Description:
Chain A is an alpha+beta fold. Chain A folds into three domains: 27-120 and 166-261, Aldehyde Oxidoreductase, domain 4, CATH 3.30.365.10; 268-435 and 566-715, Aldehyde Oxidoreductase, domain 4 (2-Layer Sandwich), CATH 3.30.365; 445-552, Aldehyde oxidase/xanthine dehydrogenase, molybdopterin binding domain (Aldehyde Oxidoreductase, domain 4), CATH 3.30.365.10. Chain A contains 19 helices and 25 strands. The structure holds FE2/S2 (inorganic) cluster (2 copies).
Amino acid sequence: MKKAVKKFDARPKLNGSWKFLDDYSYENMIFGQLFYSTCHHGIIKNIIFPKNFDLNEFTIISAKNILGKNIVPEPVCDQPFMAEKEVMHFGQIILGIAHSDKKTLRDFVENIKVKYEKLSAIIDPKECLDNERNHFGKEILINHSNNEKNTGNYHKNIYYTQHQEQAYLEPQGAIAIYDETKKTMFVRVTAQCPFFVKSGVETIMGNAINEAIIETSEGIGGAFGGKEDFPNLLAGITSLLAYKSGKPVKIVLTRNDDIQITTKRHPSRIEIETWTNPLTQKIEKCNIDYRLDAGAFQTLSPVVMARGVLHVGGSYAIPNIKIRGRLFKSNTPSNGAFRGFGVPQALAAMEAHIDQIAIDLKIDPYLFRKVNLFKIGDEFPTTQKITENNLIDCLERVIKNSNYLSKKKEFAEWNKDNSNKKGIGISVGFHGGGFTGNGEKVLKSELKIIIEKNANVKIFVANTDMGQGAHTTLSQMFYETINHPKEKCRVQLPNTSKTPNSGPTVASRTIYIIGNLLQKLAREIQKKLNFENLESYVATHQNEFPREFRKVYIPDKSIVFDENNYVGMAYKDYSWAACVNEIYFHADTYKLEIIKSWNVFDIGKVVNQKIAEGQAEGGILQALAYANSEFFYKKKFGRVRNFTDYTLPTTLDVPEIDVEFIHTDNKIAKGLGEIPMDFPAPAVRNAFLNATGIFVDEYPLTPENIFNIIRSKNEN
Amino acid sequence: MKIKFILNKNEVEIDANPMTRLIDVLREHFQLLGTKEGCGEGECGACTILLNDKPVASCIANLIHAENGVILTAEGIAKTKIGTLLIDCFDETNAVQCGFCFPGFLVSSYHYLKTDGEPNLEKIKIALSGNICRCTGYQKIFDSVLMACEKLDLS
Ligand code: FES
Ligand code: FES
């Protein structure tokens, strides 16, 4: 086996020399803080600043000071940078404030008082999603059905999932520096998508600047979707403070502020009714109502919903299927991107439902899946044809790796004599790579490389490395293609004035779209210059260098997707995965302990085994915690406030995680970023069902939730 | 108030409010930026340092606690023999993802290797339980520390 390629940034990260956002300082820099609403819905009556402070020392901005537009640029432009009169949710920003001393600033901001006229508010996700009146208006309908008759066995369930906090370990932050002579705004930011931030800053600044130049910090301390759109808003407000104060301004959110005001995973309510043929055990027909709580504003939620409805039918051949997707409105901060993007909710429901049907039909969930899983020639609800059987291979592998069949028997015996219970459960999943439908066509992603006189290769992409190892893997894809020395190849820090727009770092597209494009470019350069060895070519053709090469991504012509009717090819390539989880239920404490998680993936070609494993393991743990511990909504208050309330898994909570990538003939590296978060959660729920026979329709399965379910079951 | 302590093997003195958070002293006064602030309330371990040979969350410790004491930060540990061994092992397994938590893990792992060092997974999990990592799922961190324990045993 060849030796693993190591990450170029591991050592500086370990010894503390790699710079994250808060590690940057500039001359004359002052500090900023956000002042936000503590009212869930209301009209601002007045704002009272604390006495004993000299107001002249502070720079204070509100919606009135915005020089451009007070609308954060998003797929739906409905969210203001700062509230004007009405606040729509707890955490909505009202003021930006800056001062040279952090402590004075904090004392001042903590003592600002606002009088609100309170209006009615919905903060409980279930209350929001159960009531049709909270529907935002638009909907997506997929109808792949030619049978209006309902025959066979009928199965119906409604499933709920809750908010989930990204909990990137580095809080959000931005530093803005205004250049008066050039009329430019330079912003350093910890963010996934520098070009999104650029449009945010240019929108709030309007004609006051000629250009916003965005560069990320060297290190981006995790993101998981949480640094996809919120940084636009934060960078915008930081810029306005820098402009007004005439000094560089740094805002780094405290953890409390970060948790309370930034985007989360959308809570969902998913209703599924299914008809099965009792003889063939095949699913004949399925209707799904997929609802997401978008929060107070829609922002990018329609895109999350689109991906959700395209995955909620699961990996099953269903001849008649109707799916309806809708967004609901509540008085919580707008929910946003989080690894999985609508799919974890979809599979949490569908994979639980599949187990429910199997129980109704008295067949093992594994065998029921085998009968109904996609096979070559089957169709997605969008009519796209299935062209590979790799999911079945993943399922067979994971059943074997986990000893599912013998464990199931063994646990059934053990459970007879014990009040604690053991259980084992399955789930499967898939994730489309890159943007949905025509998204990649519209984007026209471009990347560039420069080959220098010393044969160093500089790679310029807008895609960020937020820990997923993208910059290591991308450069590996380039130098391995042309056999160039590894140390001579480096991805540059994304900067919007130097880097072409290769699109945002989202949708598992960095390796799948940009990596594969980079590989193509490498081959093209080799062919064009006709070299065996780039170093010797450069050495003998010095006058040709430095030289720049660019390439634009042009999607396959075969990808046609009708966005009005949701028919056609939603994604060109899909990654597939299957999971088995083993759990132990402590009957006295109601604690559901995950003992081990086995996972098998098809992600096409694996570029870097260790990096891919690490990505998978991290995503799987997030999914397992989504299933049994991470709970956001608090009855009285609406949101948790900090890490003390929000139970992230520690070294003592993590089970052993087994990851395998199956070998296929595929030469393409498919997406891996999101799928590990998509599918393992329902296998926890299904294992609990196997252990106890108790049906759970609400995630997460915290001791409190389990206790309530058992109690209400006993009462009935 | 003037306070003296030993920081990464050097004697230092600072004149500041004794209630200043240690993390601010390290980051702002001594420019030791390897100590990270992930939560500011003692929950995540990103700010872990060794104070008098014990792992401490520097975001909830104050300057006064360091008086006449000995502090080792990730930067200091990285220069020691055991620190280098640990860095080699974390690098070898490709454990590091975003890296924000890793200086803290380096400190806690170093402390484990110094005080126990048995290649025992359960013990390692307890030793690292004050450090949260959101990226890795911990598996490769465990592999790295186990590997370091084994290598230390051999040397
Ligand atoms: S920053 Fe100190 S424990 Fe989190
Ligand atoms: S590597 Fe990102 S938090 Fe640990």
